[in-house]
Design brief:
13 strands, single chain, alpha/beta, about 325 residues, Alpha-Beta Plaits, six-stranded mixed beta sheet
């Protein structure tokens, strides 16, 4: 199969499902404007990163979306419903995981999930099955019948995620979900969120660990001083495309071939002068891992002496650092 410009830059159409839509959102606490004009769209079937420094309004925004904070002004739709005027319908479709998991320490992990399942009016048999399934998903089966008080912080975080998923929500809101998780659990979280998105769930996740967001997010929304801002370069295009780094023993052969197939490449400053004379690398947008696999196969078939192909790490961090708002 030959590589064309479509292979590296074309992407599937965006979902038309409701997801999350926010327009002109404002919320003040006295003289403090926590949200001062937020516009946001989070697509169904995608993971959207919510990025910003402390005090930028991320948690306030998530509280509004969860129906726990009433906005002063603006329009909010979660799974097609207004959390203020149609709160029960919005909450029935929303899973909310705050940054700190609060629970009844006297209840077991299983009882916590069954209690919330009852609050969402799941039939008892369904609730029992769902609780067992989620405890296995978050690797807490062996702690299912132990009091929540014996769980570590990371285990409580995992239980909090299971609690947010107990009613199989259409929209999942996560505020620092990886806090307290060990490396294995962080990987499991990324896999789970990608799986949920692939099944059509709208996932909006706030985190300060930008490297991890970079690996799981399809889209990114940046907040600064309560406002939505656009960085110089977005971390994700919203269509599954992200930058990959290509290296070859002959940079000239690589760039000549990429130009001949219509690929939109640019020089990679990090590889300049690194390696044997004449070698080097470029950066270019690629649609998903399948697109990367096709790209590598086609490059080798074309005689390009490839030495490396990997996602360009740190895209979210680079975008974050370009926020001029934070430099004023």
């Amino acid at each position: 199969m030959s590589t064309t410009a479509d292979d590296v830059s074309h992407a599937p159409a965006a979902s038309t499902s409701p997801g999350i839509r926010v327009t002109g959102l404002h919320r003040s606490f006295g003289a403090v404007r926590a949200l001062d004009g937020v516009d946001l769209t989070a697509r169904a079937g995608a993971v959207t990163a919510l990025v910003g420094p402390n005090g930028s309004g991320k948690t306030a925004l998530l509280l509004v979306l969860a129906g726990l904070l009433v906005p002063d002004e603006g329009e909010v739709r979660v799974a097609g419903h207004d959390p203020v005027t149609d709160g029960p319908a919005a909450r029935a479709r929303t899973g909310w995981m705050p940054d700190a998991f609060g629970t009844w320490d006297s209840l077991t992990a299983r009882e916590v999930l069954l209690t919330f399942a009852a609050a969402y009016r799941l039939p008892r048999a369904t609730a029992v099955e769902r609780a067992a399934e989620l405890l296995e998903t978050v690797h807490l089966t062996e702690y299912a019948d132990r009091p929540a008080s014996v769980l570590s912080r990371g285990q409580k975080q995992r239980l909090g995620l299971a609690r947010a998923l107990v009613h199989d929500p259409d929209v999942l809101l996560l505020d620092e979900p990886a806090s307290g998780l060990d490396p294995r659990s962080r990987v499991d979280l990324r896999v789970l969120l990608r799986d949920l998105a692939s099944r059509g769930t709208t996932v909006l996740v706030s985190s300060h660990v930008l490297a991890e967001l970079d690996e799981m997010a399809d889209d990114a929304v940046f907040l600064s001083r309560g406002r939505t801002v656009v960085p110089e370069r977005s971390a994700a295009t919203g269509d599954g495309t992200r930058e990959w780094r290509l290296r070859a023993l002959s940079l000239e052969t690589l760039t000549t071939w990429l130009t001949s197939v219509g690929a939109r490449w640019r020089p990679d400053d990090l590889t300049a002068g690194d390696g044997p004379p004449g070698s080097g690398g470029v950066l270019l947008p690629v649609v998903g891992e399948e697109g990367a696999a096709r790209l590598l196969a086609d490059a080798v078939a074309a005689g390009v002496p490839m030495t490396g192909l990997a996602p360009a790490a740190g895209a979210l961090e680079r975008a974050y650092l370009t926020l001029e708002e934070e430099r004023r």
